[in-house]
Amino acid sequence: MPSRQKQLIFSVSGLLGFCCALTAAVATGLPFWLRGAVLCRTGADLVNATGPELDKFLGDLSYGLFHGQRVKQCGLGGRPSRFSFFPDLLSAIPAGLHVTVIFFCGVTILFSSVATGFFFFNAFGRPYETLQGPLGLYLWTFICCVSSCLVLVLFAAEVKLQHLSERIANFKEVNFVFQTYTERYDRSFWLFFLIFLVHGLNGLLIRLAGVQFPFQDSKEVELSGGGADLMY
C-alpha cells in the first residue's frame, strides 16, 4: 500500500483513538451509568398496593461510578437525596469490584491516549522497534479493547450479581425496605460499549493498512542434518 494511504489510515485511527480517550474520561466522571426505579416494598405491602397504586411507592435512582442521586417514594411524597460512593457507600457496596471498574476505566483512558500517539507516530515518523512499529499498534489496540470490555462486564456483574441498586437504596434505611423495580444502563455505559467497537474498528484499519497480524506466519523449523546429529 502506498505510504500516503497508510498515513491517511493511521491518521484516522489516531483521531478515533483520541476520541475514545476523551469519551472514556468524560463517561467515567458522569453520573449516568445506570438509571432505574426502586419500589418501597414495606409501604406497598402495608396497603396491598397493586397496579397503578404502585406508582406512589416507586422512586427514581441514577448513579455513576463516583456519585448519584435517589428519590425515595413511600406513599408520602418523594425524598430526594444525593450520595457519593467515596467514602459514604464503601461499607455498603462491593468496594473491591467497584474500584476495579474504575481502574480499568483509567486503563482505557491511558492506553487510548498511548495508542493515539503511536498511530500518529507511525503515520508521520519512522518506527524502529516492535512496540513502536506497526505491530505494536495491535498491542495497544488490544489492551484498549480488553480493558473497555472488562469495564462493561465488571459493572454489569456489580449491578446484576451484587445487586448494587438495592444496596444503594437501602443504605442507612431503618424503617423501610427497598427493592429494585426496573434497571437500564444509561449513556455512559453505552459510550464505553462504543469505545470497545471503535477500538475493534481500529484493529481492522491496521490490517487494512497492510500490517500483518502478529504470530500469523508460523516459523518453519529447519530439520536438515537431523540424521547426522544423531550419530556420534
Radius of gyration, Cα only, in angstroms? 25 Å
CATH domain class name: Mainly Alpha
- Identify the overall geometry: elongated
Total domains, how many?
Answer: 1
| Major sheet attributes | 5 strands, antiparallel
Number of helices, where a helix is a run of at least 4 consecutive DSSP H or I residues: 7
Write down the secondary-structure element order. HEHEEEHHHEHH
Spatial arrangement of strands, main beta sheet: 4-3-2-1-5
User: How big a fraction of the residues is strand?
Assistant: 15-25%
Q: Which range best describes the helical content: under 10%, 10-25%, 25-40%, 40-55%, 55-70% or over 70%?
A: 40-55%
Question: In the CATH scheme, what's the topology name?
Answer: Butyryl-CoA Dehydrogenase, subunit A, domain 3
In round numbers, the mean pLDDT is: 85
| N→C terminal distance | 52 Å
Please give the number of β-strands.
Answer: 5
**Computed structural class:** alpha+beta
How would the blueprint of this fold be written?
Blueprint: H1 3-29, E1 34-40, H2 41-46, E2 58-63, E3 67-73, E4 78-84, H3 95-124, H4 134-160, H5 164-169, E5 178-185, H6 187-208, H7 226-229
Antiparallel strand pairs: 1-2, 1-5, 2-3, 3-4
Subcellular location: Membrane
Transmembrane segments: 95-125, 137-157, 189-209
Membrane topology: Multi-pass membrane protein
